[in-house]
């Protein structure tokens, strides 16, 4: 579990950040005056940076391993979430979302690579399925649980908390000697 859980949490965060724009659309439009086109751009920049990073991420994972690459990229995601939390204009929001997309680009592949390196082949199908299932909980979290938290603390504090949580996940992966 010491190898599996931190990588699964990283993939969970990837899914959460992927779907959270739908939840925060109303507060962003009312507070910052964004329109539907701006919201679409915020969502698109996440997916664009995520997609562009896929081939370089694969090469880096093969060269340096999942521990280093995932932990460094999650730091970028944490910075992106913190920047998003403190942004007061569209350009800064876009930069935050771009860093988020880049920062979680390796989440699934790094996790699967870590599983291949640390678990016997006969356990991989189960662990792969479990990782994908736990990751999908990130999308589930952006429904009622995140909506409740959003109503309680607001979108800025929500993203600040996600930045701290993401940085913690990065530290868990980096400091774990087993996932080298």
Termini gap: 15 Å
Shape descriptor reads globular
- CATH H level: which superfamily? MFS general substrate transporter like domains
Mean pLDDT reading: 94
CATH architecture classification: Up-down Bundle
SSE pattern, N- to C-terminal? HHHHHHHHH
The Cα radius of gyration reads: 16 Å
Q: Into how many domains do the coordinates divide?
A: 1
Q: Kindly provide the name of the CATH class.
A: Mainly Alpha
Keywords: Cell membrane, Membrane, Transmembrane, Transmembrane helix
GO molecular function: transmembrane transporter activity
Pfam families: MFS_1 (PF07690)
Transmembrane segments: 41-61, 68-86, 98-119, 126-149, 155-175
Task: Give a verbal description of the structure.
It is found in: Cell membrane. It comes from Bradyrhizobium daqingense. InterPro entries: MFS, MFS_dom, MFS_Efflux_Transporters, MFS_trans_sf. It is built from 9 helices and no strands. It has a single domain, classed as MFS general substrate transporter like domains (Growth Hormone, Chain: A, Up-down Bundle), CATH 1.20.1250.20. It is globular, with a radius of gyration of 16 Å. With 180 residues, the protein is mainly α. Helix content is 85%, strand content 0%.
Topology:
Elements: H1 4-19, H2 21-32, H3 36-52, H4 54-64, H5 66-86, H6 90-103, H7 107-118, H8 124-141, H9 144-175
Helix pairs in contact: 1-7, 1-8, 1-9, 2-3, 2-9, 3-6, 4-5, 5-6, 5-7, 5-9, 7-8
């Amino acid at each position: 579990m010491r190898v599996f859980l931190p990588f699964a949490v990283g993939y969970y965060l990837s899914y959460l950040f992927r779907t959270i724009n739908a939840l925060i659309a109303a507060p962003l439009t009312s507070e910052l005056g964004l329109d539907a086109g701006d919201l679409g751009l915020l969502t698109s920049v996440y997916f664009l940076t995520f997609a562009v990073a896929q081939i370089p991420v694969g090469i880096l994972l093969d060269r340096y391993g999942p521990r280093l690459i995932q932990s460094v990229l999650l730091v970028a995601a944490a910075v992106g979430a913190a920047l998003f939390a403190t942004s007061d204009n569209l350009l800064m929001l876009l930069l935050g979302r771009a860093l988020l997309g880049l920062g979680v680009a390796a989440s699934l592949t790094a996790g699967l690579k870590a599983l291949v390196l640390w678990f016997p082949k006969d356990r991989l199908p189960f662990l792969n399925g479990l990782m994908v299932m736990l990751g999908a909980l990130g999308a589930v979290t952006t429904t009622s649980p995140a909506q409740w938290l959003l109503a309680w603390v607001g979108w800025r504090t929500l993203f600040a908390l996600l930045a701290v949580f993401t940085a913690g996940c990065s530290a868990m992966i980096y400091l774990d000697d087993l996932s080298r």
